[in-house]
Amino acid sequence: xxxxxxxxxxxxxxxxxxxxxxxxxxxxxxxxxxxVFYHTVVGDNESRLTLALETAESRANLIVFTGGLGPTxxxxxxxxxxSHLGRKLVSDEEALDSIKAYFSKTGAEMTENNKKQAxxxxxxxxxxxxxxxxxxxxxxxKGITYMLLPGPPKEMEPMFLSYxxxxxxxxLETHERIESKVLxxxxxxxxxxxxxxxxxxxxxxNPTIAPLAGDGEVTLRITAKDSSREKCEAMIAEVExxxxxxxxxxxxxxxxxxxxxxxxxxxxxxNLTIAGAESLTGGMFQEQLTSIPxxxxxxxxxxxxxxxxxxxxxxxISDKTIDEYGxxxxxxxxxxxxNVRDLLDADVGISFTGVAGPDEQEGMPVGTVFIGMAFxxxxxxxxxxNLSGSRAQNRIRxxxxxxxxxxxxxxx
Amino acid sequence: xxxxxxxxxxxxxxxxxxxxxxxxxxxxxxxxxxxVFYHTVVGDNESRLTLALETAESRANLIVFTGGLGPTxxxxxxxxxxSHLGRKLVSDEEALDSIKAYFSKTGAEMTENNKKQAxxxxxxxxxxxxxxxxxxxxxxxKGITYMLLPGPPKEMEPMFLSYxxxxxxxxLETHERIESKVLxxxxxxxxxxxxxxxxxxxxxxNPTIAPLAGDGEVTLRITAKDSSREKCEAMIAEVExxxxxxxxxxxxxxxxxxxxxxxxxxxxxxNLTIAGAESLTGGMFQEQLTSIPxxxxxxxxxxxxxxxxxxxxxxxISDKTIDEYGxxxxxxxxxxxxNVRDLLDADVGISFTGVAGPDEQEGMPVGTVFIGMAFxxxxxxxxxxNLSGSRAQNRIRxxxxxxxxxxxxxxx
Lengths: 412, 412
What we know:
The structure is a homodimer of 412-residue chains.
Chain A: E1 2-8, H1 10-13, H2 20-32, E2 35-42, H3 46-57, E3 62-66, H4 77-85, E4 89-91, H5 93-106, H6 112-115, E5 119-121, E6 125-127, E7 136-141, E8 144-149, H7 153-171, E9 177-186, H8 190-196, H9 198-202, E10 208-214, E11 217-226, H10 229-247, E12 251-254, H11 259-269, E13 274-278, H12 284-290, E14 299-305, H13 308-313, H14 319-324, H15 330-343, E15 348-354, E16 368-375, E17 381-386, H16 391-411
Parallel strand pairs in A: 1-2, 1-3, 3-8, 13-14, 13-15
Antiparallel strand pairs in A: 4-5, 6-7, 7-8, 9-11, 9-12, 10-11, 15-16, 16-17
Helix pairs in contact in A: 2-7, 3-4, 11-16
């Protein structure tokens, strides 16, 4: 089954909202083993929507629409498909009842145009809307399956998970499974990583290997097709082992994880607490740490020492260090990490000091960053980075490198 | 000029990332008065990309590509367009130099495939990449303009703003101007705001008024069309004045601003310094403050007091307060704000304490948040919030309310 996802809505073409529906549905179809070859976004315009529909019919046999099922005049997805396919729109009693129920529940006043929402393509399977009024529907005509879903993600997503998913699965003749696994790397560039596994990329067929780079990280998505999950997973494991044997030192986790999640995990299993002292990152490391539920077990807190005063008075950095080496130095980074560790009575201290930009500081160029790490009963150390991004990128990369270095030291 | 935006990347079709590039570019084109009638997403596949290209040529005269300009084998946007248009790919010296410079700066290892990134369509205008390696390009052939941009938003967005925007503007024949202004509101719901300006929304034509809600904020985009910028701006000003007269108390800024930017601005003009003490927000307020260049003038730093120990030992919260009222209380919020202000010798202290979730705390339900504000020579106060979102939403909303309350107090 080859799918195309068509999002209908002028607000998308005006850039007022982003098409998260296509992402959600694509993930779902990837797991079902349905190929998605195109996403299309078109406005609330009958002729252009018809054109998009004809284009999709020429290249897909599953066409999924999101949006345009609302009560207003510019919601015309159903009407357009109805006239294109020559299928009447009929009122669905159950849908109408649930719309009436919705209004009596909320106490709002039901208007004539709300009845329009109960109209469905004659002969189609109705997908109930448990979080709104417009029902979804599925119908297959001349070998092409048309699925209509509402636009609001909070209605569309539960509708697809509760009803749409199974409705599609029933139509899949093939029993072929698709499994994939994402390997995550940090500290190596995309092109260098690819050079190291070039032969694997060359001869890839099944499983496939898809590299993706972003925010200083590189991921490899390994996707296998076979008759059973077990067979797929075995095929993936074989490729994975080969890749890890070559670039394992940069590998930090698989699938839905992140450097910060891995850090919280590794600190938790070792029952270690951490404290942070941040200058250029301004609290980003601590904010990310606390974005993870349960971080309270390992995170004591920390200090954002954005001025030299704060470094001296609150974080107790010695004048000697500030005068002799400056605040953008390995010495200062180490003292920050040790002091925040001791001030908060944590097992590990980490610090970030450097020049985020746009202006240089202490004669140090933008992108110069020192990360200090202080473990109890171990020699503290500082790592130097020379980053070349924007202010925002330099801050983000610094936090990622901090997690990367700490993870290395924890695992060693 | 009718535009179509084609995003190239299998990761989009697999649902690994969302197509924010289409949103960004659509916003830009809306402001330029260029109609965007379609977005298309296609994978890293030559034949399907060619098909998408042919479809776009049949319905648009400006085709903008994002993605597929990278160094790897599955980056084939340039190559596909080159063979489709019969235009050679030639190496651009400047681009090659900047790629070499990029590597020498970062000290990373340059590989053969990086040279591929310096290839451009012969005769095209090069759009320099100030945040990465792959240059963009623009060329017009047989009345159709093709623009190629890199995929990573951190590279694509500044490239378009610095070079792409003007390159398109030059090609626009029309002399009709489109100007728009976004008014930003916080502390009022979308539906309440709409009721207060219902009559204006009813009779809107030129200028148009488009409401949009998200993350607890509501914006109104006013868009006017006329022969000159001045005329547009006068039309916008009239509508704006009327709106502000009705809901001005919730208005905080216009166009590309944010609550945090306004806060930095207001503190700067008043020459006031600030310090923060954060529990549930874990440093998010301070991280956002320091994301703004120049925050160093007004931000001293702060404390992330994630445990009761840290509140007691580092932030000097009295045992009495913690025992009698608990850490999730207005009393604790006020003491946090006053203490961090005094510890860092700032003019203003702000604090965030509460229950982000998923679990309740001290018998307080998830979403209970206290924000403390302590100005010198003024009575300190705390505001209570009862939020109903996820852990992440509750943290973000808390920071926004903190900025909102501080701004109110500064302006009064």
